[in-house]
Amino acid sequence: MRDDMRDVDFFRVPCVIMRGGTSKALFLKENDLPRDKAVRDKIILALFGSPDVRQIDGLAGADPLTSKLAIIGPPSRDDADVDYTFGQVSITDLVIDYSGNCGNISSAVGPFAIDESMVRAVEGLTTVRIHNTNTGKILTAEVQVKNGKAAVTGPCRIDGVPGTSAPIMMNFAATAGSSTGKLLPTGKPVDTIETSKGPLEVSMVDVSNPCIFIRAKDVNMKGTENPDEINGNKDLLNYLEEIRAKCCVIMGKAKTPEEATKYSPAFPMIAFVAEAQDYTDFTTGKTIRKSDVDFVSRMMFMQVLHKTYPGTGTACTGAAAKISGTIVYQAIPHIDSIETIRIGHPAGVIPVGAEVKNGEVKKAAIERTARRLMEGYAFVETARIYG
C-alpha cells in the first residue's frame, strides 16, 4: 500500500478477525499498511470506527476486549518466526496504545501465521516463536496442526468462551522485564505509596506486561465483585486509576500521573486480590467454589473491570505468586507446594503454570484457544484519513 491515497474515495485493506482466548482482534499484515505510522494509525482508527462509543462505522465491538489490533510481519530477529505488534485501540479517543501486549490476542498469532503461510507448518504440532515488538520479548506458542493448517476443533475449554477448541500452549517465561527491564521494577516485592486515601501497599511485577497488585480489602472490596459492581462505582474507579497512574510513574512509564492516564491507559494493569472464597460466575450464574481456586483476583483494563482475566495479566499474576513476599504470594497460604495456580476471575477460573527461581522466571504458561472468524477486505473512506 502506498502512503498517499488521496486520489480515491475509498481504499480497501486485507484483514482477518480472530478470537484469541477471551478477546477478539483485527489482524493486519505489516506489508499491507503504509510505512508512514501517522497515516497507518488513522487508517486503523477508521477501520475500528474510533472514536465512537458504539464504533458503529467500523469493525470493532464497542468493548475494550474487542477493540484490539494485531499487526503481523516478517521477523526482524533471527530467534523469531514472526513479528507481532499489539495495539489497544481506544473507543473514545484518537489513541492507539502500543505500550504493552495482550496475552489472549497473542494466542491467535501462531494460528494466523500458520494459516497465512508465514510459518512452515509441521503436522501435529508447530512451535511458533513470536517477537512481540511492543516489549522486545519472545513468546512461544505450541499450535496443533491438521492438514497443514492450525487445528480449530479440540477438547480444550476456557472459561469465558463457549464450547471447546484445540489447545494452544503459550509460554511467557522469556518476557520478564517486558516494559521496565526488571522482574520487580523497584527491586522490592512490596512498596508503600501515598494516595489520596492514605498509604497503600502495592506489588509491582513485570512479566509479559507490568502489573500492579493490591489487596481487595485495602480498597474496601471483597475480591469477588462482578463487572457491574466495579464499573458502576465511580469513586472506586477513580481511586484505582489514581493508584495505577502513580505506579506508572514509579515504573518509569510516564512522567506524571496525568500523562499515564492520557497516553498509557492500558498498561500497566492493576488487580486486586483476596484469599480463596465462593463466588458467582457472572456469565452463567454458576457458583465457583472456594475449593476450585487458589485465590481470587479482579483485574482492571482500560479503567473498567476485565470481564475475564487478561492473558498477559495471568502470566504476570502467576509469576507474582511465586515471588516470596508479594501481595499475591501472601494471598495463597499453600503457594510453595503448587506449580499450577488457579486464579478465580469474574467468569470462572484460569490456571497458570509458574516457576520462579533465584529471581528468574522459568515458567509462565497458560493454555488458550483461538479461531479465525472472518477474512476479507475492510473499506476505509479516504476523507477519514486526509479530510
Write the layout of secondary structure elements.
Blueprint: E1 10-20, E2 23-29, H1 37-48, E3 68-73, E4 82-89, E5 96-97, H2 103-115, E6 124-132, E7 137-146, E8 149-150, E9 168-171, E10 191-195, E11 198-207, E12 209-215, H3 227-231, H4 234-250, H5 257-263, E13 269-275, E14 279-280, E15 287-288, E16 295-301, E17 304-305, H6 311-321, H7 327-330, E18 340-345, E19 348-357, E20 360-368, E21 370-381, H8 382-386
Parallel strand pairs: 2-3, 4-6, 12-13, 16-18
Antiparallel strand pairs: 1-2, 1-21, 3-4, 4-5, 6-7, 7-8, 7-9, 9-20, 10-11, 11-12, 13-16, 14-15, 16-17, 18-19, 19-20
Task: Provide keyphrases for this structure.
387 residues; Diaminopimelate Epimerase, Chain A, domain 1; 19% helix; 19-stranded mixed β-sheet; 8 helices; single chain; alpha+beta; 2 domains; two-stranded antiparallel ribbon
Low-confidence stretches: none
CATH architecture of the largest domain: Roll
SSE series: EEHEEEHEEEEEEEHHHEEEEEHHEEEEH
**Coarse shape:** globular
What do you see in this structure?
This protein has 387 residues and is an alpha+beta fold. It folds into two domains: 10-167 and 370-386, Diaminopimelate Epimerase, Chain A, domain 1 (Roll); 191-364, Diaminopimelate Epimerase, Chain A, domain 1 (Roll). The protein is 19% helix and 36% strand. The chain contains eight helices and 21 strands. It has helices at 37-48, 103-115, 227-231, 234-250, 257-263, 311-321, 327-330, 382-386; strands at residues 10-20, 23-29, 68-73, 82-89, 96-97, 124-132, 137-146, 149-150, 168-171, 191-195, 198-207, 209-215, 269-275, 279-280, 287-288, 295-301, 304-305, 340-345, 348-357, 360-368, 370-381. The strands form two sheets. The chain has a 19-stranded mixed beta sheet that branches. A hairpin with a 2-residue loop joins strand 19 and strand 20 (360-368). The longest helix has 17 residues, at 234-250. The relative contact order is 0.16. The mean pLDDT is 96.
